[in-house]
Amino acid sequence: MKTVSMLSSQKSAYLNFYLAAVSLLVFLTTLWGVYTHFSPVPFWDMWDGYLRFYLQILDHDHSAWLQQHNEHRIFMSRILFWIDIRFFRGTGAFLLCVNLLIQLGTACVFSSIVSKRMKSDPYKYAIHFFVICLLFSWVQNNNLTWAFQSQFLFVYMFSLLAFWNLGQYSTEKKIFYLACSLLSACCAAFSMANGLLVFPLLFVQALFLRISKRSILAIMVVALGIFAVYFNNYEKPSGHASSVDSLLQHPFLVIQFMFTFLGSPFKSALNNIHFVTAAGVLLMAGAGSYLYFIIKKRNLNSVNLTLFTFLLFIFGTALATATGRINFGPQAAMESRYTTPALMGWITLIIIGFVNQTTVHKYFFQAMKGALICIPLLLLPPQLKAFEDFSGTAFTRKLAVFGLARNHYDESYARQVYPFKDVLVDTVDQSLDQRLSIFGTDWYKYDHEALSADSISEKPCMGNMESVRPFQSGSTIAYRVKGWVWDPQTKSVPEYIVLTDSSHQVVGLGISGEPRPDVTAAIEGHPTNTGWRAYVDKASIRGPIFAFALTDSGILPVPGKPIELAENTFIAGISDWDGKPPSKFKILNSEWTEGKLPPHVKEDDPNQVLTSGSQGDEFEGKVEIEFEPDHEPINITYMTGPDSTAQKIEVFDSDGKLLTQFEIPESTHRWSNIRFDLNAQEKVKAVLSDQGKSWGQWSVLLIP
Questions:
Q1: Whether 556 contacts 492, CB under 8 Å
Q2: In this predicted model, what pLDDT tens digit does every residue of 251-272 receive, in sequence order?
Q3: How confident is the model at residue 3 (pLDDT cuts 50, 70, 90)?
Q4: What domains does the chain contain, in order, with CATH numbers?
């Protein structure tokens, strides 16, 4: 017996060491990932749920505290939002730290449960490390790196606290625990909508715990009060499926979504939606099996009831999510934010297995030990994604708000931070007025109207001004200029780019930070993120445009041929296609394919097209078209692939003089229209060329 005990102790020591190492690796890599994926730019829901909330508070509209965000009332998160903007400049860094602290708080609750039932168990520390490993897994990176997501973490910490404190109340008989349970339940309800499930589950838990009728009555009274407040002036959000209709009309799809939700942490490891769904089935089957044995052995104590009630909460959340999101398809169940409750479900099952190791057959316990070893291994490969380069996304977000702050709504970038133009523009304007969040400094401004000739260095930096692309900015046309820059003297990338005309009058401003792997590979020292983008108004154009870099060593000219943009650049508008046929033209020469859209484009082909995409993304070629003289604007209807880089258009007059040229505006997988107000008396030729060899670089021209 002594030898067996020693072997068991040795095995547990090995397991403890293994899980300690894995959990430390997971924790440190996740911390690094959160740090490197930080961006101070508000993202998606932060524009309406974060900045607009604070603007309402500034306007003395205190109803904003309990205002719906979709179906949720995120009061607990709004407390954090207010603190972040009021005391931490609204950068979101404070919120990310809190997200990590919430997970740490949840880990502490789990550890308290484990410590109560496994005081002398040799596997106790292994469970503690397992909890840390899963709660900080990178598979849930959306909830850890997005400053808005505290409510998604709050609701599970508070619900677990509510169930745990009620269990403590049943054994300790101290009113303090009941008060903590009810307070936690209230906090859960005002974290996310699924927090409302806590109260009916508390009621069921209380019945099984056989606590006093007075205590059960207190739960019911508080629950009724919370529900009354929550559903006062409640409005069902649009865009979500009806829960009742989903259950009645698509029960099997709901079940599939639910199980996929529960298996979502293993998306990367299993790499197949059916295997992921099977993992979810396994979680529920394991929970059901243990519940059967525990009831059979009459071992439904306060700890077991706490754990199973929390599991029911997670299963209920999965079901509610399935009924409300089924219209987005089963793939939506594997979104990163849904892995957090699923991970907690697996944690809870493992803890149930170990605190009841003597209750069930030994093979069940062996299976739990196997899961304790295998689950962290399955979650390790996604951990490598914490090292992915985030600088491209960070630059995109910064450029979007940089343009907005300078009155440029650049749809290609702005839609990546928030999809609704009117709300975004209005929020930016108000935030600028109040100097909130990223608009609290003057990083987007340049106050000088002209560069002094004396201030410009004779020695240029390294770099190039590469291309220009027009876009519709409100009611006017603006231009986005692209290039790269490197200051070899300071061995740094200048942060700002100034655009001027030939008299050094400032006509535009830009920022750097875009990844340019081609530049990194080509230049000694391998500088990173050397790319820059700058904006210039059409109204500001007075001849050729020059670029200058603002550096610590002075104002340095950016090499490259000046961009030739005459005051009359002829572009009258860029917009989504309204269905009207484009202007009639004659095909002079075409290396593109006539007939149909690329096979991977699902949009209906309204007419015949010329496309460079049917010959593969690596194809390079051009099409030349000719318009008859007309006093009406010329309309060209087109579409681009996901990457419109190197998709170029040139317009020539009858003498072959270049009138205007630029990269084709992005129009990914949708028809757009570009209008030229040439007032032409003679024939005009347009040349569309595909000079891109990379994935997604193709264009389509609609034939009238």
A1: no
A2: 888 899 999 999 999 998 888 8
A3: very low
A4: 2-40+91-234+244-387 (no CATH), 447-567 (2.60.40.10), 571-702 (2.60.120.940)
Single pTM value for the model: 0.89
List the one residue out of 576, 534, 545, 540 whose CA is nearest residue 675: 576
HSE-up (13 A, CA, CB side) for residue 637: 20
Q: What number is the average pLDDT over the span 382-402?
A: 94
Handedness of CA 37, 41, 42, 44 (dihedral sign): negative
Q: Specify whether the CB–CB gap between 19 and 372 falls below 8 A.
A: yes
- For 539-591, strand residue ranges (E) read 546-551, 554-557, 571-576, 586-590
Contact (CB, 8 A) for 77 and 85: no
**Tens digits of residue pLDDT in 533-591:** 999 877 667 778 899 999 887 899 999 888 876 555 678 788 888 888 888 888 999 88
Tokens representing 402 are: 């940089």
The type of residue at 527 is P
Q: Nearest 5°: CA angle at 405, between 401 and 407?
A: 115
- The encoded tokens of residue 113 equal 């449960």
Q: What is the DSSP string of 194-244?
A: GGGGHHHHHHHHHHHHT--HHHHHHHHHHHHHHHHHHTTT--PPTTS--HH
Residues 558, 461 contacting (CB under 8 angstroms): yes
Crossing angle between the packed helical segments 302-325 and 273-296, to the nearest 10 degrees: 150
Beta strands (DSSP E) in 439-590 are: 462-473, 476-486, 496-500, 506-514, 531-537, 546-551, 554-557, 571-576, 586-590
CA distance 615 to 639: 16
410-416 contacts: CB < 8 A, separation 24 or more? 410/471, 410/473, 410/478, 410/480, 410/535, 411/471, 411/472, 412/471, 412/665, 412/666
- At position 445, the amino acid (one-letter code) is K
Q: Is 475 helix (H, G, I), strand (E, B) or coil?
A: coil
